[in-house]
Amino acid sequence: MSPLDLTVTDIRQHVYCPRIPYYRYTLPLERPVTAKMDLGKEEHESTSAKEARRTLKAYGIEEGERRFGVDLHSESLGLRGRIDMVIQTPRELIPVEYKMASGIGLHHKYQLTAYALLAEHTFGGTVSRAFVYLTPPKKAVEVPITAAMRGHVKKTLEDLRTAAEHERLPRPTPHRGRCTDCEYRRFCGDVLTGV
Question: Which of 53, 140, 141, 161 has the smallest number of Cβ neighbours within 10 A?
Answer without folding.
Answer: 53
